[in-house]
Structure formats: structure tokens, C-alpha cells
Amino acid sequence: MKSSSDNDPFVFRTFSSIEDAKNYQNILAESDIQSNIKDIPPGVDMSFLGSTAGHEYELQIHRADEDRANTLIAKYEEAELIASEGDHYLYQFTNKELIEILQKPDEWSKFDYRLANEILLERGEEVDSDMLTAMKNERLLDLAKPEKSKRYMIVMGYIFSILGGALGIAIGYALSNAKKTLPNGEKVWSYTVQDRKHGRIIFGIGVTVLSILFLLKITDTNPNKLLNHLIY
């Protein structure tokens, strides 16, 4: 008897291109495994603030189909390895370039990652499991480092928030709350502690100024008269 969790969707694979996602979806569909592709855009905070994080496409399946899906994909990738022997573009890569693929698996497909390892073995460059684990951990540490925000974006955030613009609030919220997901699923802050502090201040100023402007509007109070009254 299947539990309710068996029918819960989960992320089976993540791709950087919609074409690869659809290709795997079609392979699963041929064996009557239902799947769904979820479009994960960089997000307003990432794209607006100049982040290098790109589009991702999650291929989701039911938990109950996981074992069967893994078996199908393993057979497909094995066949692809055999079919592409000597003909795939990765065979033109130098050993150094192939090792870079192993160092950055999040930037390549699982097939490319596996083939790069196979080619290195064929060339006598053995990469053992300990080395792969070390590469993986080093990559995670590198990806977990906070990104440097652009100084002009912080300045613009302060300006827009003081002027009472929603754009300033958006910049402040993005700086203080943006997170990125590592290949292992862990979520970490996108920006440094100092940048997040700026974000909270920008957000607070923006909300305060916007609230004051809103109150002035609904009470039909002239801001200039109010300012003169406060000064004199």
C-alpha cells in the first residue's frame, strides 16, 4: 500500500536548459512515468542586483517512481556513453578542461560529468573517489561564498527609499533576504553581512517614507505645510 508521501512530487533532476529537461521528461514518459518541469527563474532580486545565477529547470516526479526512473536514466546515459564514444565534443577537451568539469559539476549535465570522468580514465588520468569528493566539497565552499553587491545598487536603494519609491523597498528587501541554493540543496545567504545590513536599513527607510506619504495623502495634508509647521 502506497503512503501519501509516495505521491508527493520531488526534484529528480535539475537542468540549465529547457531542452535537456524535456529530453529527460520524454524518456520517462515512454515508460509511463509522469513528470513535471518547473521553471525556476533567477528571481527579481538576483537579476536586478547583477547576480550571475541563471535559469534552472527542475524535473519533478513522484517519490514512488524514483527507483524506476533512476534505472531508466542510468540505462539511457550508459547507451549515450557507448554511442558517443570518440564522437562527443568532450573528446576534444584537454585533460585540464575535463578536470574543470569534474570541479564544477553544477555547470554541466550529469552525462557530461560522467563522460568527462570516463575520458580521463581512458587517457590514464585516474580520478579516485576521494579526489572527486574533495572537488565537490571545495566547489560547495566556493559557491557558498556571498556575492559582492554592486555599490551603485546600494546607493540607488538609499536614494529611492528616501524618495518613497517602491523600487528602494524592493532593493532593500532583495539585499537583506536573497538566498541561493547550493547543488546539495543547502540554502545560503547571497550577500555579505554588511550588504544585508544596508538592505535592512534601506527597506526600513523606504517603508517609513512610503507610509508617511500614504498618510499625508489619505488625510489630504500638504507636505510643504506640514514641513513648515514642524520647522517653525
TrEMBL record:
This is DUF2007 domain-containing protein. It comes from Sphingobacterium phlebotomi. Keywords: Membrane, Transmembrane, Transmembrane helix. The chain crosses the membrane at residues 155-178, 198-216.
